[in-house]
Design a protein that fits this description.
Strand 8 and strand 9 form a beta hairpin. Helices cover about 45% and strands about 25% of the residues. With about 500 residues, it is of the alpha+beta class.
């Protein structure tokens, strides 16, 4: 149903006076449609009236008066007014009826539109209801907690509510009759004028922010909404609500400043760590290189076996320190967004096999067995091979560190039903308490207290967070499951878009 049809039906049904449509059939008039007030007038249900002759639903005296007037209106095709009916019907007293012929394009009368004139009692009711409605609207207008202004077509303020005076300080006598742009800051004059012109042209709702000058000279940031108001004789107005958002803006500005300061501090930290790591790696590489040469006695024997023992300690410590520095450097680069992926198609099973060959000696030193469980004919993975290798080194190193003697570490590859490649790294180590899993994924999170655990458990706390960050750089999903005393399992999945 079209909007105009809906509006016409609503107007017809909700009229405060009786109204019904009649169609002439033979020598009588039949009711085709009637509204709720007409039902009260005839004292019958809709089913008992629609389609019935007027003669059957009214008294003889009323029918005679109505019939004569209806015939005149139908035959002469003119509006007719009839006086009050002699017999009262229903609960509606009527002072009379207006009868109007409804014609088609050829001026043939299709129906007669009959509208009852309200009685004196009904007019009083209508007046009282109108007064009550105006009182209600005025109460809502004044009780609203937001400022409300009403402008005419010349932008002059013709009404304001109490909240506008309370919030912005302007009294009614200072505001009524003013051009509303006089209450705005200079930078708002042009956009406000343009918005008003646009509104008066299209009469659509507008909203946005505008700065209002308060009576005390302060500037209030407000959120405005405009809506059209049409009265009789084509009079058009604009109703604008103003919500003071100054405190909200200040809070937002403070939060933004705090965020900028935090970002600046974080960037400074990342820059410091990166620079420090670069500065430390150079001498460490020299220490590692020279200690290896001395341990191999490249230029002759050292002369004392104790020196070899010390050099071995220096070499191991330097390599451990270099691993820590590399982890810190990688994390700082990821946080700063400075790592770019060098992606290509890689054979994941072959990459893991080569990596295990490198890590095998470390596993054997800890009496840990590495078990391979690969899915055959695994598609190639489109990824950065160096990053994938680093992810697995971090996970395998962690598993070796926290495994018990004689335990096993399983590396598994899967192509799941979604065509996603999954990597599973499972160990039988000490595990992580369930309430500390989230902490384990935070940078520098130390789950096992160095004071109560052996040196084997000590580290930077960056292994898992780094692995997770590197997986997410590839758009993958990293999941950690662990049971204290039973072991830890890491699931990594890569989108099907990365399978080749």
């Amino acid at each position: 149903m079209e909007d105009n049809e809906i509006n016409h039906k609503a107007l017809f049904d909700q009229m405060p006076v009786s109204r019904f449509l009649l169609e002439k059939q033979n020598d009588d008039f039949v009711v085709k449609k009637l509204n709720a007030r007409a039902l009260k007038f005839f004292q019958n249900s809709r089913e008992e009236i629609v389609g019935k002759s007027l003669k059957d639903i009214t008294t003889a005296s009323n029918y005679r008066i109505l019939k004569e007037s209806l015939e005149v209106s139908f035959d002469k095709k003119i509006p007719v007014t009839i006086p009050a009916l002699p017999d009262l019907m229903g609960q509606m007293r009527s002072l009379g009826f207006w009868i109007s012929p409804i014609q088609d394009e050829d001026h043939n009368v299709l129906w007669l539109d009959v509208i009852g004139q309200p009685g004196a009692t009904d007019l009083a009711v209508v007046q009282r209801e109108r007064d009550d409605a105006l009182s209600l609207l005025t109460s809502i207008f004044d009780a609203s907690e937001v400022g409300i202004l009403v402008f005419d077509k010349n932008r002059l303020i013709i009404k304001m509510n109490d909240s506008f005076e309370r919030i912005y300080g302007w009294a009614e006598e200072e505001t009524i009759g003013k051009d509303f742009v006089e209450l705005l800051t200079r930078d708002e004059l042009k956009p406000a004028t343009e918005n008003f012109v646009a509104f008066m042209n299209d009469e659509k709702r507008h909203f946005g922010e505008v700065k209002v000058i308060c009576k005390n000279g302060a500037i209030a940031n407000t959120m405005f909404t405009t809506a059209p108001l049409k009265l009789s004789h084509g009079r058009r107005f604009q109703v604008t609500t103003l919500v003071d958002i100054t405190k909200w803006k200040q809070i937002n500005m403070s939060l933004k400043l705090a965020k900028d300061q935090a970002d600046s501090s974080n960037n400074a930290k990342s820059s410091f760590l990166a620079n420090m790591s670069h500065e430390l790696r150079t001498p460490l590489n020299a220490i590692i290189g020279f200690s290896e040469m001395m341990m191999n006695e490249a230029f002759g024997p050292l002369g004392n076996a104790k020196y070899n023992e010390y050099l071995s300690d220096v070499h191991v410590s330097a390599k451990h320190l270099l691993e820590i520095i590399n982890e810190v450097l990688d994390m700082s680069k990821i946080e700063a967004g400075k790592i770019e992926l060098d992606e290509q198609e890689i054979d994941l099973n072959a990459l893991i096999t080569n990596l295990i060959r490198i890590m095998q000696s470390r596993a054997l030193n800890s009496s840990v067995q590495i078990v391979e469980d690969y899915q055959e004919n695994l598609p190639r993975l489109y990824a950065d091979a160096r990053i994938i290798r680093q992810i697995l080194i971090n996970l395998i190193t962690n598993s070796i560190k926290y495994s018990i003697n004689g335990g096993a570490i399983t590396l598994k590859t899967i192509l799941n039903h979604k065509n996603e490649i999954e990597i599973v790294v499972k160990d039988e180590g000490v595990g992580i308490p369930e309430n500390r899993l989230k902490e384990a994924m935070e940078p520098f999170g130390q789950i096992h207290d160095p004071q109560t655990h052996s040196e084997a458990y000590q580290g930077t706390g960056l292994g898992l967070p780094l692995a997770k960050a590197m997986v997410e750089m590839h758009g993958g999903v990293f999941t950690l499951d662990s049971v204290e005393g039973e072991g830890t399992t890491v699931h990594i999945s890569f989108s099907s878009s990365r399978t080749k």
